[in-house]
Design a protein that fits this description.
7 helices, single chain, binds glycinamide ribonucleotide, alpha/beta, 22% strand
């Protein structure tokens, strides 16, 4: 049976696009929908261009059993991937998809996680603290920000003169390389 993925993303969506491309002609895994909390998010356009259903939703729909939950129940995803998704994932959805929601974080958790630590804010903090390395963390999502069980981490060395933009580039490269493969492993090892 084909495994189904729903992606949540808030903005640019290069990770979502990379995941969609990876599974586009995959025999066992399919991205069935992309959902965004921003109606003008670039991710919606990127997804539609690749032939994937994509739509935005409001805060009310996110928290309403007749809103996003209803869409997800219809889509029956085996895995929900938060790829640059910036709203806290609500209990209403976590309860229904227990252990089926994962997130990618652009740093080596538990360092540089928590509220306000996302996207470029993470990379700026890394540079300000002169960290010798950074990386990515793929983890299960629970009620607390960035605190669910870690599934996978990869690290990359930083140079003393790396700017936040350079750090972001190194982190994105790791994300593109590893996230689709980790998703594939998770989906295909489960029955
Ligand atoms: C990614 O680097 C992702 O790890 C990060 O946002 C970026 C989204 O880029 N996520 C977080 O910071 C979540 N706390 P993209 O929209 O180009 O995929």
């Amino acid at each position: 049976m084909q495994k189904r993925i729903v992606i949540f993303a808030s903005g640019n969506g290069t990770n979502a696009q990379n995941i969609i491309r990876y599974f586009l002609h995959h025999p066992q895994v399919k991205v069935v929908r992309v959902l965004s909390n921003k109606k003008d998010a670039k991710v919606l356009e990127r997804s539609k261009t690749l032939g994937i259903k994509a739509q935005s939703f409001t805060k009310e729909a996110f928290l309403d059993p007749g809103g996003v939950l209803k869409i997800l129940k219809r889509d029956r995803p085996n895995l929900i991937v938060l790829a640059g998704f910036l709203w806290k994932f609500p209990s209403l959805l976590l309860n229904e998809f227990h252990n089926k929601v994962i997130n990618i974080h652009p740093a080596l958790l538990p360092k540089y996680g928590g509220k306000g630590m996302y996207g470029n804010f993470v990379h700026e903090a890394i540079v300000a603290n002169k960290e010798p390395e950074t990386g990515i963390t793929i983890h299960y999502v629970n009620e607390a920000y960035d605190e669910g069980a870690i599934i996978f981490q990869a690290r990359v060395a930083l140079e003393a003169d790396d700017t936040p933009e350079v750090v972001a580039g190194k982190v994105h490269k790791l994300e593109y390389e590893h996230l689709p493969k980790v998703i594939e492993t998770l989906l295909l090892k489960k029955s």
